[in-house]
């Protein structure tokens, strides 16, 4: 089953919606990426600064090789002054301020540089929540401290931002679709008027015109349409005048020829009955004059018939006609019954028609067949 193509209004609306959707997604995606990157960068920098302060305090307050109680006491102090949870490792000993954070959760990208005396920060996930891990060592022989800064609120803020951007993008798509529909309606109104005007012209109303508004492409279209209909009206008027002149000419010629042809036909009939005193050449000439005068009379009668039809004055006399007998009579009156064979129903076919016009039709068709075709000529 073939699908019906979308209309112009639907295509314009869909185009507006798709373009706005692409723009909205691109803007929302880029904006979210920038905000998220800046937020995490700021949080990591802040966590790194705070971690350095705690590392400096550890270097200043802890002995070179602190005991477990001393290290635990320091971790408690750090926890009281910060939101970070701390994991400390010293040899094979590990202390933590929160059971959900352990040394095993420290990323390798942090653990390696810390062992070389560097302070490293990394965003990761630990204990099922986003965190920033900052690691550093109390050199030269002190413990390694890993501070876990929870970022759950930051993650929630970013999620809300993503939801707001998505909702805004959706609203923008809806508004753009509405704008597209409104723009399509404004564009289609002149097209609808043009379509109606074209249909009026097709129906014969050559006075149909379009209103020209503004100087845009649609205004140019309206001007071109108006110029076309004006030229069409002018040309058709000229053609009608020529046609009327031709009809008058045919009618006048037919009427003018009718009187002399009547006299000529009468004279030919007299000549046809008085050929005994003529030579053979004279009789042939007389016979030729008679035949051609009859053909000319038939031609003039056809012209008169055409004139009456063009003027709407042709009269149709309907009667029941036996077609087979009518055809045979038409051929016999023209002397063609010996050359043309008629094949018809033995019972005859009776039709309601104009017998005179049937005679003319048979004369034209069979005459053309005898003149331009080859024998045998058969009317079926």
How are the SSEs placed, and which strands pair?
Elements: H1 8-61, H2 68-81, E1 85-90, E2 93-96, H3 108-115, E3 120-126, E4 129-137, E5 144-150, H4 152-202, H5 217-273, H6 280-310, E6 319-322, H7 323-333, E7 340-342, E8 350-353, H8 355-372, E9 377-379
Parallel strand pairs: 7-9
Antiparallel strand pairs: 1-2, 1-5, 3-4, 4-5, 6-8
SSE arrangement, N to C: HHEEHEEEHHHEHEEHE
SS elements, strand count: 9
> What is the SS-derived class?
alpha+beta
- Indicate the radius of gyration in whole angstroms: 54 Å
Share in β-strands: 5-15%
In helices, the fraction of residues equals: 55-70%
Anisotropy-based shape: rod-shaped
**Within the largest sheet, what's the order of strands?**
2-1-5-4-3
First-last Cα distance:
48 Å
List the uncertain runs.
none
Largest sheet: 5 strands, antiparallel
Mean pLDDT: 82
Helix run count: 8
Structure description:
With 380 residues, the chain is an alpha+beta fold. It is built from eight helices and nine strands. The chain has helices spanning 8-61, 68-81, 108-115, 152-202, 217-273, 280-310, 323-333, 355-372; strands spanning 85-90, 93-96, 120-126, 129-137, 144-150, 319-322, 340-342, 350-353, 377-379. Strands 2-1-5-4-3 form a five-stranded antiparallel β-sheet, sandwiched between helices. A two-stranded antiparallel sheet has the order 6-8. Helix 4 runs parallel beside helix 5 (217-273), helix 5 (217-273) runs antiparallel to helix 6 and helix 7 packs across helix 8 (355-372). It starts with 7 loop residues before the first helix and ends with a strand. The mean pLDDT is 82.
């Amino acid at each position: 089953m073939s699908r019906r193509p979308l209309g112009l209004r639907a295509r314009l609306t869909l185009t507006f919606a798709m373009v706005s959707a692409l723009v909205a997604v691109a803007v929302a995606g880029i904006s979210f990426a920038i905000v998220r990157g800046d937020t995490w960068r700021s949080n990591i920098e802040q966590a790194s600064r705070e971690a350095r302060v705690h590392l400096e305090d550890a270097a200043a307050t802890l002995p070179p090789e602190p005991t477990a109680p001393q290290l635990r006491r320091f971790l408690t102090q750090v926890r009281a002054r910060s939101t970070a949870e701390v994991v400390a490792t010293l040899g094979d000993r590990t202390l933590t301020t929160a059971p959900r954070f352990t040394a095993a959760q420290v990323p390798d990208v942090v653990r390696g540089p810390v062992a070389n005396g560097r302070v490293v920060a990394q965003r990761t996930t630990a204990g099922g929540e986003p965190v920033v891990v900052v690691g550093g060592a109390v050199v030269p022989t002190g413990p390694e401290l890993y501070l876990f800064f929870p970022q759950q609120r930051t993650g929630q803020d970013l999620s809300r931002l993503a939801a707001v951007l998505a909702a805004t993008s959706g609203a923008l798509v809806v508004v753009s679709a509405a704008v597209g529909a409104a723009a399509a309606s404004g564009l289609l109104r002149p097209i609808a008027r043009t379509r109606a005007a074209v249909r009026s012209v097709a129906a014969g109303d050559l006075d149909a015109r379009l209103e020209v508004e503004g100087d845009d492409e649609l205004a140019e279209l309206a001007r071109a349409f108006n110029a076309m209909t004006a030229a069409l009206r002018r040309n058709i008027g000229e053609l009608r005048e020529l046609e009327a002149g031709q009809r008058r000419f045919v009618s006048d010629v037919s009427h003018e020829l009718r009187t002399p042809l009547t006299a000529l036909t009468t004279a030919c009939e007299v000549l046809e009955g008085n050929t005994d005193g003529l030579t053979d050449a004279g009789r042939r000439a007389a016979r030729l004059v008679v035949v051609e005068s009859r053909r000319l009379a038939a031609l003039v009668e056809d012209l008169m018939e055409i004139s009456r039809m063009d003027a709407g004055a042709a009269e149709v006399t309907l009667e029941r006609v036996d077609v087979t007998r009518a055809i045979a009579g038409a051929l016999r009156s023209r002397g063609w019954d010996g050359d043309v064979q008629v094949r018809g129903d033995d019972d005859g076919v009776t039709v309601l028609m104009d017998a005179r016009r049937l005679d003319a039709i048979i004369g034209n068709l069979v005459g053309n067949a005898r003149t331009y075709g080859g024998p045998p000529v058969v009317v079926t």
